[in-house]
Write a structure and sequence with these properties.
By secondary structure, the chain is α/β, with parallel strands linked by helices. The chain has two domains: 175 residues, Quinone Oxidoreductase, Chain A, domain 1; 124 residues, 3-Layer(aba) Sandwich (Rossmann fold), CATH 3.40.50. Helix content is 31%, strand content 27%. Strand 15, helix 10 and strand 16 form a beta-alpha-beta unit. Helix 2 packs across helix 3 and helix 2 packs across helix 9. The two termini are 15 Å apart.
Length: 325
């Protein structure tokens, strides 16, 4: 069997991605052959392609997809051909019409779940789940600051935090994105294109600061983020869209009020199969109960993947985007 798949031979600009035919072998022991119907577009795909994350080359790109099981390898008893499944995370290679995947990293889907919505939300939703539920749990009486509030993760974080009872402050750029964030759980949204972010945070918190910052930006936002925290607040650095944040010194955390700093990853928080199933199950339950809405961003064909990466990197996207193989 042949698959249409995107690969790179060297890391760099979006144009390094090439769509080609690749032969797909039969699934081995503990593996599934998946016909992929919808592929997630995530910023970590940019990290893999650009070289921010090192890869062994040549390599595929993409880490999230939803589809249907075509065949099962020896020893697989949890799945059968025809099952609807999804995955998020693991080695790059999701930008493909078909893929071999380890069965223990797959999640079985209910019949009523739309595959496109799963591919839009699974990785982003599990990211929000571990950040807000387990990394630094928030709830009533807590105030959280979230960057890129109109992005795929940001919109889900606003809704999730609002459901938990926290006061959510978002940062976005431009009135359209700020309005979108306000409609998705944020009590306050700061427009970084025309407002002084640090001053607005002080104003909104009465000078006290926030309990937690969920920062996906990195280098460019580091000083604003660390100074936005109240004493004993927590800086959660989970993304680096502008480059890695500077090294954090223990003395700086002490001086600014016994602060905490953490650099978590979804890989760590879904390391075991049970953690993976629990996290995905929580996301699906939040969707089913109406506490989360999927904001459908742009759809791209697999042959439009170069344009998709240009749009994502330039900030022209909002919500959760999709690639159709």
């Amino acid at each position: 069997m042949n698959a249409n798949a995107v690969s790179i031979k060297r890391q760099g600009a979006p144009e390094e991605m090439v769509l080609e035919q690749q032969e797909i072998a039969a699934p081995g022991a503990g593996q599934l052959l998946i016909e992929q119907k919808a592929l997630g577009l995530n910023y970590q795909d940019v990290y893999h392609r650009s070289g921010f994350y090192p890869l062994s080359l040549p390599s595929g790109i993409g880490t999230e997809a939803a589809g249907v099981v075509l065949a099962c390898g020896e020893g697989v008893d949890e799945f059968k051909p025809g099952d609807r499944v999804a995955y998020a995370g693991g080695a790059p290679g999701a930008y493909s019409s078909h893929r071999i995947m380890p069965a223990d990293r797959m999640v079985k889907l209910d019949d009523g779940v739309e595959l496109g919505d799963v591919a839009r939300v699974l990785l982003k939703g599990m990211t929000v789940e571990y950040l807000l539920n387990r990394c630094v749990p928030i709830g009533t009486g807590k105030t959280a600051l979230v960057y890129a509030a109109a992005g795929g993760v940001g919109l889900l974080a606003g809704q999730w935090g609002h459901h938990l009872g926290a006061t959510m402050i978002g940062i976005a750029q431009g009135e359209a994105k700020c309005s979108l964030a306000r409609a998705n759980g944020y009590s306050h949204v700061i427009d970084r294109s025309c407002e002084d972010v640090a001053a607005r945070i002080r104003e909104l918190t009465g000078g006290k600061g926030v309990d937690v910052v969920y920062d996906s930006v990195g280098k460019a936002s580091f000083e604003t983020s660390i100074n936005a925290l109240k004493p004993r607040g927590t800086f959660v650095s989970f993304g680096t869209t502008t480059g890695a944040p500077p090294a954090v010194e223990a003395a700086q955390l002490q001086k600014l009020g016994s602060l905490y700093f953490t650099r978590p990853t979804l890989v760590t928080y879904t390391a075991s199969r049970q953690e993976l199933l629990d996290s995905a199950g929580t996301v699906f339950r939040m969707l089913r109960d109406g506490h989360l809405r999927v904001h459908r961003g742009a759809d791209y064909r697999l042959e439009q993947v170069v344009q998709a990466h240009h749009d994502l990197e330039s900030g022209r996207t909002s919500g959760a985007c999709l690639i159709i193989p």
